[in-house]
Amino acid sequence: MRRMIYFFVLIWTAVADVPTKMERTQILEFFTNLRESVDPPASNMLLMRYSSELEKAAQKTLANCSSIGLDRKTLPEDAFDFFRYFFHNGPTYVEMLTHFASNSQNYNYDENKCTRPCLSYKVMVLATSNAVGCAQSDCTRKGHSSKAYLTICLLKKNGGNAAKKPYKRGDSCSECPDGFACHHKQCLEKPSPVAHSPSPTTSPSTILSQSTNPPLPVTDISTKVSTPVTVTSLNSPSQCTSSSTEVFPVVIMNMLAFGLWLIV
């Protein structure tokens, strides 16, 4: 039993960590704010989403980072990687992304030139980029006392070319594809309409309105039932009085008939 537990622990420590739900939200908020605030404004900027597939790919890339480093051969096609080593407690994903986004000051949009390294920033604001996934792992080498954490995010370029200008200048969302809406100055794909079938919680009025046989009009009902029907208690005095009044004359007639028979 102990051997099984030790084996499980070894496997668990070899798997890279993935962002929590809150961290995923923070990553998306970071990209939304960054791409919303580009200068000059973009006319065709797509809104980013978080990708579980890219997250799994990031995990796979970090699988053996403590021995061979970053395995970039496992990177998916059309994905750009942002990664950085940290030699202290594991950093937040936003800290790592902020480091690369700060290179925006090195980029001149009009001339499409970088005064210093800025390729990572250009990919971050690439109009066609629409998905991101991240992971993090303890990549401390065996025999080294200092900790080494590697944080990586993969971004899907979606066919975009970062060598060119990353987006088109123009009024925000003015060149969004068909079927897209504008959200934070970015193109958001509208959800497809879904047909809903009647559910058990549908109100009775809704069910009646959908019936092939329409309900009887109220006027017809009032014609058939012209007076209200009241329910009287079985112990009601009116019932007893009514019964005795009907029975009493019959009893008198029977007594008179019996008396005449005796006389005859």
What gyration radius follows from the Cα positions, in whole Å? Answer: 40 Å
Distance between the termini: 115 Å
| Overall pLDDT metric | 75
Low-confidence blocks of residues:
1-14, 199-262
In the CATH scheme, what's the topology name of the domain at 11-189? Pathogenesis-related Protein p14a
Strand content: 5-15%
Reading the helices and strands in chain order gives HHEHHEHEEHEEEEHHH
- Going by CATH, the architecture of the domain at 11-189 would be 3-Layer(aba) Sandwich
| CATH homologous superfamily grouping of the domain at 11-189 | CAP
Proportion in helices: 25-40%
Q: What composes the largest sheet?
A: 4 strands, mixed
- The number of E-state strands comes to 8
Structural class: alpha+beta
Total helices: the number is 9
Strand order of the largest sheet: 1-5-6-2
**Which overall shape is indicated by the principal axes computed on the Cα atoms?**
globular
Biased composition (Low complexity): 193-212
Pfam families: CAP
Signal peptide: 1-16
Organism: Mesocestoides corti (Flatworm)
Question: What would you say this structure looks like, in words?
Answer:
With 264 residues, the protein is an alpha+beta fold. Helices cover 38% and strands 14% of the residues. The protein is built from nine helices and eight strands. The strands form three sheets. A four-stranded mixed β-sheet has the order 1-5-6-2, with helices on both faces. Strands 3-4 form a two-stranded antiparallel ribbon. Strand 3 and strand 4 form a beta hairpin. The longest helix has 27 residues, at 237-263. It is globular, with a radius of gyration of 40 Å.
